[in-house]
Amino acid sequence: MNALFSAGPVREALISDLIVGLVLAVGLGAGWAARRNEIWREALVGVLRRRRYSVLVLGIYVFVALLDSVLWVGGTDSSTSSVSDKVALQEARSPLDRAFADSSEKSYSAPLSRVEFYDVSALARPGAHVFGTNVLGQDVLYLTLKGARVALLIGGLTSLIAIPLALFFGILAGYFGGRIDDVVFFVMSTLVSMPGILLLIALIMALGQSTFSVCVALGVTSWVGFCRLARGETMKLRELDFVAAARSLGVKDRVILVRHILPNLMHLVVITFVLMFSGLVLSEATLAWLGIGVNGSWGQMIAQAKDELSRDPIVWWNVVAAGAALFVLLLAINRVGDALRDVFDPRTRGEKL
Amino acid sequence: MALEVEGLTTEFPMSGRHVPIVDDVSFVLPEGRCLALVGESGSGKSMTALSLLRLVPRPGRVTAGSVRLGGRELRHLSVPEIRHVRGHKLAMIFQEPQTSLNPVVRVGEQVTEAILLHERIGRSAARKRALGLFERVGIPEPGERFDYYPHQLSGGLKQRVMISMALSMRPEVLIADEPTTALDVTIQAQILGLLRDLQREFGMSILLITHDLGVVNQLADEVLVLYAGRVVEKAETTQLLSQPLHPYTRGLLDSLPGRRRPGERLYEIQGVVPSPLDWPRGCRFCTRCPEVFEPCAEQTPPLAAFGSEQSVACHARHRERQGS
Description:
The structure holds two protein chains of two kinds.
Chain A: H1 2-5, H2 9-35, H3 38-50, H4 52-67, E1 72-73, H5 83-89, E2 92-93, H6 95-99, H7 140-176, H8 178-193, H9 196-207, H10 211-238, H11 241-248, H12 253-261, H13 266-289, H14 298-305, H15 317-344
Antiparallel strand pairs in A: 1-2
Helix pairs in contact in A: 2-7, 3-15, 4-7, 4-15, 7-8, 7-10, 7-13, 7-15, 8-10, 9-10, 10-13, 11-12, 13-14, 13-15, 14-15
Chain B: E1 3-14, E2 17-29, E3 34-38, H1 45-52, E4 61-69, E5 72-73, H2 79-88, E6 90-93, H3 97-100, H4 107-118, H5 123-136, H6 142-145, H7 155-167, E7 173-177, H8 185-202, E8 205-210, H9 213-219, E9 222-227, E10 230-236, H10 237-242, H11 247-254, E11 304-305, E12 310-312, H12 315-323
Parallel strand pairs in B: 3-8, 3-9, 6-7, 7-8
Antiparallel strand pairs in B: 1-2, 1-4, 4-5, 9-10, 10-12, 11-12
Helix pairs in contact in B: 4-5, 4-7, 5-7, 7-8
């Protein structure tokens, strides 16, 4: 367990790429299944029609994240001469890394500037840094784009942990009631009665700080809300005639749960996933501010840039780039989530937006 | 296979007491016949049906009596055994076709799955069977309707789908819980006709649960009138409709429009069914009965035979018979 959570940076990067792949596979699989089902196809078309720009923006984020998730070793980059670049050639690098290879400066430079920010010496690549460079001379656009993958990883992996957990316990508690319900409800009440951020910090400390431990901690603390929802909805479905009809035909409880309860919760799963996703990315930013976030996240960029804001002249592009990337992603996700809710809500289904 | 029910009692805990919602109900449903359970809402009709299948919702419990199907006691079967009986021997169709089908699964698939549940045949064979059933229950263009979702079908078609699902395993006894209540009158007649034809064709028995005496007249051979969980009258259909004995049955029949001259006010039974917590100690109908006298509130009238094809639980009738 601990070996997984405290794996070296390379191994962590590789595992996290696998997880990005997994998140994407789940997404594509769901999309493919939805294509064959009229209700879902209609919903997807409805969302696309209402929010085509938000969906496009999300698509761009996913594309960038993918660009940073395909790694291979080596390359034809023979022009470099520095030792560090030679070492870098031995590492697995993504297309994004390759595109921004050789983009380092010595220190700060303002966006599109031709000279360094403080000592006004010439840059290695004048005018090439759209968002400027940070204190280490790294291109901020590059770091911002790399953040997309981290955000997708945090939101995706955490949802993959939290939603199945919530569904499993919610359905069991709602369907069987009695003792099982008491136990699940007790666990949920205990979890929500603890201050969330303290619990998160404690969990991350216990698991050791890494991307996975942050995701696991976020997952463990964020499943309660949806679990309640799933439990309540299951209690409602349990009383419906089609469940009674299935029982009167001799269907087993297990089959009823999988065939009759679960499919009727799927619209909630999708809506929750989308709305939860943005909340999780935000939570990570909070954690990063406290110094226990995920490496390379926008939250971390913002946290690192907070002192730069008090300098004179002010170094503003770090925080603006990361903040804007975060803001646009959350806005797009929330708008898609809104549209999804409208599409699934029979009261607003007919409306054209 | 005959269904024999004796002394069936189902209790629910209410305000610290165990209240018998179904109280000492007995009947025999011979093979190939149709028996109707008639009564107002809350009289225990549906609960009787659920008790037969052992599907009484918690915290209710069947506490006494026996349910025998072809001589086999259902109350003592193990869970897998009773599951096999459900659907296979005893199938049920419900009142609301709108909610009896899973809204997110295609109707054809739902019937196919019901078939696969109890039989080891291939998916395509099951599909073919389901299509045959669709055709048999009168669903037009079954091939096309097969891939519809429930919301794309009308109430009548949905009920036909439900019937085909219940029939998919060729049950011995079909329990029809108000099968036509949610449908409009023309569709109602079609569904009743269908049930009658299917009963003859499959040789099933039907346990019909209804509050509609018109439906009883069309389908049932024998009628059991329930009031507040108890059987108050039992008779052949024609006998009951022409010569009801219990004041409650008389009230029910007198409240039908067909029995009055135009312009005349319809009869109504005073009051409402009392809550199970307020059931009187004696005859449970005594609070609303026009013929009530001394023993009614204190003593429970026994269900006694009255002629060869009728029995009634009423002190007034018993006294009349002794007097004559």
